[in-house]
Amino acid sequence: MSTIALPTTTSAAPSPAPPGRLAALRTWVLQRGVLFVLLTTPMLALFGGFLLRYTTLPVSTLLVFGSFALLPLWISYRRSVSHDPDEPVHHIHLYLKWAVLPYVTFSVVRILPFYLFGINYWGVWYNFGAQLTGERPGTLPALLAGMAMYTIQGIALNTSFFVLFRRHSLLNALLYIGVWFSSLFNFVFPVYSLAGDKLTPTWYAIDIVAHFAMALTAWSMPGLWEGILPRLRFPAQAGVLAGAAVLVILPYGFGIDRAVQWQFAAQAAVERAAMAQVTIGTEAGPVRVTVGGNQARYEFGLQVAHRTYLNTNGLERDVGVGPVQVTGQIISSGRPVAWCYGYAGPLPSPNKVADPRSFATALAEDVRVTVPVVCYGLANSSQSAQQVVVEWTAQAALAGDRTQQVRDFRGQELVALDRAGPGR
Amino acid sequence: MFSLVRIPALSLTRFVFWMPWYGFGVGATGQPPGTIGSLLPGAMLYLLQGWSLGMVYYVLFKRHTLLNAMLLYTGFISSLYSFIFPVFIMVGLPATPVFHLTNYWAHTAMGLTAWFMPRFWQRTWPRLARTVRAGVIAGLALVFAAPFTYVLATANLWQFGAQAHIEATAFDRVQASLSGGPAVSVERGQAEYAYVLVLGPRAYRNYGGAYRAIDATGVQVRGQLSRGQQVIAWCAGDLDALPSVRTIRDPERFFAALWSVNYTRVSVRCAGPAAGIGPGQVINVSWTAQLLLQGERSTDQRTLTGEQPARLTAGTPASMAPVPVNPDQ
Asked: Do B44 and A65 touch (CB under 8 A)?
């Protein structure tokens, strides 16, 4: 496949002798390197703030702000001094146009796998949006913000192909986008992101296919926009443009439609079912008693468990629990001898842990969380008792991405007393 | 230049011109206000905004005359900012005449500079000798760096210390006090009580004169009710955080919200044996409140203790005493 000849207003200056390596490197940096770095700041922000987490995503996104200011400056400067018609600054408007359909295709080809394997392509958009804006994941604001980020990243990635390569050949497209980026993302996303996801070979296969589809589309863009489209007559040209417009809208429209029409309700149902599974029970073991002066202090724990569920993006999550407020009594011989109180703010949860390995550790640690309960009564009330009845009521706020509820839990249990002296 | 001419304002009028930079940085990055983490992104955003505002003059007007510069910067943009900042942006900071004067003066300086720049670069610059050019470039670099360097230096050398001192003083003012008497209800051999502990005052003015409220998290109240030497009930009340004004971004709503949280009520419940307890009796209420106080730059774990005699009321929650609202008392 030959590359498309691009119109230019400048002509190449005759070169008397081949430049040295250092001069060639300098020329490359000036012509392509700087532009490449400025254009790929959305990808740098993604890697620095989202994947590798050197800083937060909002902070790393400041890079994009900086490049927004510097790009016009650099482009206008290079256009004023460049005599090389191949220099990308002369064609940047074309590259930006060519970059649109490839990143769109990357999502369009993942629509069918959503129906076949239940793997949705917009799940990661929630994470982008939530980290960028602080909106709750699994909501429309997070999805829309994530969409905007995905768009900017997609355009940056594909523009970088056209800037980086002088020859926009099929081989270069497949190597750069199909092989390099799919390998990179297949490594980086599972290792540094997608916490709570249990990735299957199908996920990797879909990702590779989507990147190759993007590569093919990127390769075909110069031919379509500068070769085929100008030669078409008006109705056909309008038809192609309309088709391109539909293609651009499709992944966004489909993602929003599925999110609103299916996912939000499904997620709410999943969360309600998960909340119904949450249990609070008395921790095994005796109630510890210490006596000081004329007061007795009793201690026991309530254990919160069964919080884990799988959300509609296929991610393991914990039901958020807290605050939890416990009131109760210690009853001996049918009468209350001590009054109990326990309180815990939001219980530890792995949900905001972005690193997959740390997430797994946090998930395991948070399988059972103890809420300590302390009771006070008069020291002479249960002096001879070996066993007491612990009666408690816990009110807990439960929260998922889309639903919240307050649940009451109750318990009554006969437990042994573990008496200790005041010094213990 | 817009910032450079505002540098004397700090020593002359205590006007901290870089305070909005923190707001920009907080909004863009979520970093806490009053820290380098929000100041640097804010400074970068300010730089971009300033650059684009400077470009507006050259793009919008075909003739870069002094009149056009004055109309744009002194007339339009100054008036726009004098309206928009107090009404929509300056939360907790009353817009004084100093603010408006500084705004007009600085925008005028910006306009004059914008008007002068084409003349300088197109007429003066080509006529300069090589050594003079080097000096001019160095001077311009200095002018460019001066506001940012000044702000970073002043933030480190003055602002952060001043703010920490203000916050320490504000932390010391926060007290816990009983509001009214505990309400009691007796049922099935048990007595349940409820009373309200008031925490405050929380309002203070920061290094730039803006009103803020001390935040508090992990509020834990424990205590006892006693009659003579006999403990009659054990009390507890918790809050994850006191209501905060930190998220309020509308200047019009801010002060009402600030006064409503200046003294914050924490409900405390108690339970104990019923024997001989009833309304009208005088008991002793003792409490220990633990809380983490938070300002913009510092936090302090505090334990506030107190003890006060109070008369029990029947059944209903404690009657609430009116809460003073003036933070300057």
From this structure: yes
Number of domain units in chain B: 2
Query: B218: domain range?
Result: 175-314
CA distance A56 to chain B (A): 8
- Residue contacts between A and B (CB atoms, under 8 Å): 59
ipTM of the complex: 0.80
Given B167, B186, B218, the domain boundary residue is B167
What are residue A375's DSSP bridge partners? Answer: A298, A340
pLDDT digits (tens, 9 = 90+) for A221-256: 999 999 999 999 989 999 999 999 999 999 999 999
Domain co-membership, B239 together with B276:
yes
**pLDDT exceeds 80 at position A208:** yes
B252: Cβ contacts below 8 Å, ≥ 6 apart:
B87
Q: Is the CB of A65 less than 8 angstroms away from the CB of B45?
A: yes
Chain A touched by B51 (CB under 8 Å): yes
Strands B313-314 and B175-187: parallel
Cα separation, A104 vs A22, whole angstroms: 39
User: ∠ at Cα A234 (A232, A239), nearest 5°?
Assistant: 85
Tell me the pTM. Answer: 0.83
Interface membership of B189 toward A (CB under 8 Å): yes
Q: Give per-residue pLDDT as tens, A339-357.
A: 999 999 999 999 989 899 9
Going along chain A from its start, the domains and CATH numbers come out as 21-274 (no CATH), 278-420 (2.60.40)
